[in-house]
Every structure is written in C-alpha cells, then in structure tokens.
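Section handout 9: paired folding examples.
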Amino acid sequence: MAATMIEANDSIVTAICRNPQGLAEMLVQCQDAAIQIGTYLESFGEKYAHLINILETYCENVYQISAGLSDVNMCIKLSKKIKRQLIEFQNCIQCEMPDDKREVVFLPYKASMWDSLESVWKAADADENTDVYVIPIPYYDKNPDGSLREEHYEGDLYPKYVPVTSYWEYDFEMRRPDIIFIHNAYDNANHVTSVHPFFYSENLKKFTDRLVYIPYFVLGEIEPNDKAAVEEMAHFCTIPGIFYADKVIVQSEGMRQIYINVLTEEMCQEKSSKKEKEIRQYWKNKIDGSGSPKFDKVFDARKEELEIPEEWKKIIKKPDGTWKKIILYNTTISSLLKYNERMLRKVESVLRIFFENREEIALLWRPHPLIESTLISMRPQLCEKYKEIKDEYVKGGWGIYDDTSDLNRAIILCDGYYGDQSSVVQMYRQMGKPIMLQNMNVM
C-alpha cells in the first residue's frame, strides 16, 4: 500500500505541472487510503503509534496541497516532503511488519468445544511469524419457529492461558486475516442454536482467502462401504460450511473417504453436467483426514494435574480417604429426540441404580450442554419433567452434576463410560477405558 501511495504522489507532481484541476479526486483517495491504514494500525494498540503519526502528518500535507493548488511551487515542495514521509513509512513497515507474517483467527462459539481447535491454536501461537487471535463468538437459542431467542457469549469461560479478543473489537473487513478457523459450520441449518449471522461461513468467506472448518465432534468410525451407517451420518457431510470452507479437517482417513463419497454424490445430482471424476478430485483436495484436535487434548492431559472442585472430592472420596470408581454418565440430544418420554424414564432408572451403589461408585452426570435449549425448541412438552429430574439429582448431592465448559476434565477423571453413543465414546475408546452403552429397552 505504501508503494502505491508513493506512485500516486509522483503522479500528483506531474499533474501539478500539467493539469492541477484534475487532482482533487486523487488527493481524496490518498487521504482515504492513509485513514484506512491508520485505522488498521490502531487495532494493534500503542505499538505502531509512530507510524500513525507519520500518516497524520501525511494527511495534513495532502490537505495543504488540495487547498493551494494554484501555488505550483508550494505544491511541489510539499510533494517532495510527502515522498520522504512515505519512504520512511514504507521502511518502517518492512522492518516492523514483515510481509511473511500471517494473521490467523480462531472463532469458537462454545467454550466446552474449544478442544476441537486448541492444538491447532497452540501450533499457530508458537510460530513467531504468525499473529493469532482467539475470538469467541455469540450464539443464540432458537424458538420453535426458527427465530433467534436468548444470546449466549462464553468468552470468560476459556482456559486462563488462552488470550481472548472481543468479537466487537476485531474489524474483519479491515484486517482480512489470512486464515479463519471455525468449528461450527451449520450457519442457519441448525434447529436448536445459531451463531450470530455475521459469523455464518458464507459471510466469513468474504473476509479471508482461507476458511478452515474442523468439526467440534468426532464420530464412531465406520467402513466407507457400509451404506446404512454412512446414510445415518451423511447429514454431517452436507452442512453449509463444508461447501464454503477452503479446507475441511476430519478425524481420520476413513472418515475423509466417506465425506468425499457423500459430497461427490451430492454434487453429481445437482450438477449433472460435470464429470464425476472432476468433482471427486475437487473434494479430495478439500477434505483432509489428518485427525481431530480433540484427541490431542485428551492425550496431553494428566489426571494428577486436574483441578477438581472440593464439592466433587466429597462425593468421590470414601470415608477411609480412598477414591471410589468414577463413572461418566453421558446423555445426548439425539437420544432424547428419538426416545422422548422413554428417555426420561431411562435417566430416572439409571440415577436410581447409581444412588443405590453410591458408597462404591461416584456418578458424574454430564448431559449435552444444549439439551435444555433443544427441549424448549423441539420438545417443549418434556421440559418440565426433565428439569424436575435434574433438579432432584443436583439437590440430592450424592452425585456430580457437570455443566462446566471443561469436557476433558470429566473424560480424564472418570474410570469408565456409560450412556449414549456420542463423540465422547470415541475419546474413551482412544484412551482404552471401558465403555458401556445404555439400552433404552432395559430399565
């Protein structure tokens, strides 16, 4: 940009001598460019205040030229002064803001899902040639008619070692980050929640040359040729952000092949004029099966390093000071929507069994964080009963109710898993811990 402004200044000198009347619009454009650069530099704080001062003086000199176009000699002197200022500015930019320095932005929405981005963030943050921003974004519950309801913002729930930038302080249009990472790609296609529409993948694509989507979940591994299993999970492959993203990173090579197959078939139906081979190659280039950061987070953590609340320790410890076995009970949205009242009866049955064995086993119940929002939006008739079950469990105080943003603490702390099929099952499988899936037909 500085080089362009120097070229413009040289053009101004020529125009002053030949046709000063045509200069007004060019001078306005020069001032606008300087203001845009100055606004961008201000977003970095006081670090580049000296560069902003140069631009302010530059704007004043440009104004003096526009006000005195009839005095050719004065204008030429000012233009020479401007050129020296712009060369100084350009040299400072080259020394202090090298061209190869990238700006990378991470846009998580729920703090409990930050583990799907954290290891990638750590790698980017460790690169001295990369400026990294973690910008938690707001999201909303949805009403049954699809309209947005309550706003949520979880910027204060991230680990202390993660520096957070407020979304209203970062100007995407001005800064145009080199890479944007997202882990929610549903845009308006989710019936329960929605991120703020500004952060839909379709819109974010306008502000970066590289939009990367990493799912916040991991799925059970299935064979690419298992048609029935693939059909059940195919909807994960066709959400809006998959199409707008420049790169999609999934949990394994097997899952990558499933995404490629599903998306190739989807596009061949819609664009029959294109050859299947070309479409398949497009998705092969776009889908990356290098693995989910969620696994990195679990493998890097140690049980002895966990911060365990005192209230939890009272439930976990036996009278002699030893620990009970701890079981994670995980209930999901999909089971609730599928089984309705039967699911609630199942939860009551499970809690009763664990209550009867509370002297030897500590239960940690961690329902999906969006269950209550889902009930309000899609199963309002079940809301009151679900809250009654939850409140009675919490009030009883004999088990742990975990609604915190730290899923990994629960995974690492617990000795075994019981509950619905979910991405947490895959985490336990990777760790070699015992898993038992609940059966809705057994009470």
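Moving on to protein 2 of 2.
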Amino acid sequence: MKLRLPLYARILLWFLLNILVLAVAFSIVARSQFGQGFSSALGSLAGDRVRVVAERIHYALSMQPKAQWDRVLDEFAKEYDVHVALFQVPDRFIAGEPIHIPPEVHEEVRSIIPGLGREGPPPQRRAPPPPREEGAFGDSFLSALGDEPMPGDGPPGDNAKAGAGAWPTRVRMVMKVAKESPRYWVAVHVPPVELHPADRAPWLLFFASDSVTANGLFFDVKPWIYAILAALVISALLWLPFVRGITHSIRLTMRATENIAQGRFDVRVPETRGDELGRMAQAVNLMAGQLDGYVRGQKRFLGDIAHELCSPIARMEVGLSILENKIGAENLERLEGVRSELRDISAMVNELLSFSKAASGMDGLPPETVALRALIEESARTESVPPEFLHLDVDDSLQVLARPDLLKRAIGNVLRNAQLHAPGVIRISASRRNGHVLLTLADEGPGVPADSLPRLFEPFYRVDTSRTRDTGGTGLGLAIVKTCVEACGGSVTVSNREPQGLALVFKLVAVK
C-alpha cells in the first residue's frame, strides 16, 4: 500500500533531511579547521599552519644574532598581516612588536600551560637542524634541542616516546578571543634560543590580529567558501528530484486545464501521487469528464432539435406555396413577410446542423493529405468571392493533414463573414513553422472591440447584440470554424490588425 502524505509533510521531511546532510558536512569541515574548537586548535589545520610558521620563525631566529630578531619578526608580521611578538615568561619582552597582552590571554595561557612558571635546570643546547618542509611543528622543530624537556612541556613519559635527547612532539598552543583590539590571539610555546645560561624561562611567541582569518594564518576562509558552494550543490541535487516531481505534476495539470479551457475535454492527468497534487489531478479529471458529457449532450441536443425542425419547416414552405395561389393580391405582401421569416428560421436550423456535424466530425475519420491552395480556391468559388477581392499567397506544393470537408467549411465561413461585415480585399497567406502550417485569413474591415475577441468562438455570441436582419447572422459562424479546425487536429486564433481589420490564423499539421 502506497504511503499517502500531505504535501507540507513531504516538504518538511525533505527539509529536515537537507539540514541533517548539511550539518554533517559542516561538522566535518569545522573539525578539519578547528579540531575541538577555536581555543583548542592543536592537531587541526589551523593549528598546523601556526605551528609551521612558528617553526620557521624559531629557525630564522636561531640563525640570526639578537640584533636582527626585530627585523625577522617584522618580516613575518608583514607576510601574514599580523602582530608578532616574542616574550619570556612571565612578561619580559624580547623581540618583535611591543604590544599589550590582554589579561584574559595571560589567564588562558596559564590555565592551558600551568607549568610555564616552573623553573628547571638549564637545557643543554645543540645547533638545530634545518626544518623539514613537510614535517609537523614538533617533529623537525624540537628534535635536538637538549636532553631535558622545557619546563611545562608535559610529563617525562612524553619525552621517552620522542627518543633520547629529543623534545616532545606535542607543542602547546593557545588561541583566545580578547575584548580589546587586536582581538584574536594565538600563543605558541617555543624553546628558547640560548643566549647565556641564565635564560632558562620558557618563551611564548604571540600572534595577534584584528581579523579572525589573519590573512589565512588563523582561519582559512577558502575551505568554508568551498563548503558553502558544495552545500548549495548538495542541496540542489537533494531537492532536484522532489521539486522536479512537484513541478512535473503541476505542469501536467496546467496543460490539462489549458486544453479544457480550449474546449478539449478528453485530456487526463496521471493520478499517481498520494498528496494534494494527486487529489487535484483527480478533481481535474472528474471536471473534464463532466464537462465533456455536458458539452456533448448540448451539441447532441442542438443537432436533434435542428434535425427535427427541418421537417415542419419544409411542410410550412409547401403550405405557403399552396396558399400563395389561393389568396388575393392584397395579402401577397403579408405572405411574403411570413416566407422571409421562415427563410431566416431555415437558415438558423441549417447553421445548427452544420455546427452539430462539425462537432460530430471530431469523432469521425482520421485526417488526410490536403492540397491547401486548391482547397482555398474551391472554397472561394463556392462562396462567390470575386477574384479581384482575393489576394492569395499560398504555395502550390503546401499540404496539410485535415478533413477536407470540414476545413473547406471553416474557410468558407470566414470568407462569408468577411464579405458580409468587411467588404474589401481578403488576404490569405500560409507559411510553414515547426512542423505546422500557419494559414492567415485577414480582411480590411473595422475589426472588433478588444474585449470581444476572446468570445468570438462562443456559440451564439455576436458583437452586435441587436440581432437585426440588416446585420444578420446567428452567432454560430466562428463557432463552426473553431470546431471544424479542431476536428482537423489544429487550432485557431483571432486578433485585430493594424491599422484596421481582423485576422484569423489556422494552425494546421503540415505534411512532411
């Protein structure tokens, strides 16, 4: 049994899944950047960058006399756009930029490295080897700096792992956010460069910056930009099937409603979804079925009525002919008036029959290949259109798929209306476009009001509501045109021309 969930529940579940995926992705990036947090960045990518820089600084200091230490630290400060200072515990300034160290940074250093104030025997120093580019801070930085560990560098057991006479590989580092400027501080516990035996206190190398990134030293923003872009891509890929399913269902429903609005009630929307969109598809299908039944019943009723009226009208015409021979001359005028009204009724019944036959033609034989120009010329002769009033621009080789009788009736109705309401030249042209033929029939009349254009194809609709004998017509002419063209597998649109006139465009299926 398929699980049926409302649409808002599906969106909520998908959103929670998206949040979960992004949270996992960001946690991976955060751990790679900060390890266990900003204040404990040892072992993370941020800590590795700082340790490598501290290793370079320490090696540069060991290779230079003390008089050059300020220059060395100034070069590194400019390279990373940070403040660099070297202090000896507790607060003796040695080299670099003389900066004030905030109290909270002092406290953080003492809480993380409690043994910094402990004195011990002076270490026996050896010249440090050149640093390894690929090594971590502790590996190549402290391998031969003495037999004794620096005070505060951890228990003796750590030194045993590093080998006899080696410094511990784990070097303490503190990252702290201060209240005053510069706000972001990193302190690295480095071994002192021996000046004389009395210099036994530990050294701290401070990096300070007003920016959390410190030009990529503290925090590399590029991985986060990549992470955000990856999150957007992941979210797009994650939401793509869900949104595509919704938009596909909406698109199918929209197309079905457009067809229904154009009078095509045989369309159906798939009812495979179990949410509100699925229920909407069911409602659209039910509505289309009911409208199809109503319209078919209406057309059938009109056809039956028109067919039943033919017999009494014929009998009335015979009766009037007989009565004409039996009445006096003084009543002949009245008899002619009755005969004129009967002819109008007969014309309306014939229009109803034509409309009914055109509608039934939609369910008739399949379309066949029709030579368009020859059919137009035949229809013009049937409607007695003078050649001088017909401008025909249709290629002889142009062919369409259509029902010849219905297409001829549609073209004939347009030509008849043009002669009645817009005397003048009738221009007919055709062009091929995207597998279709666009047949345009344009007159030079006054056109119709813009608000009447959408209703011209409605049965019994007339722009002139007076329905006098002078204006004529039953309001079925363009309704028959639309029905005939759709029975041929095409469509028809109408628009006003500039500066004046009315144009109808038949969109027919072209023969390849």
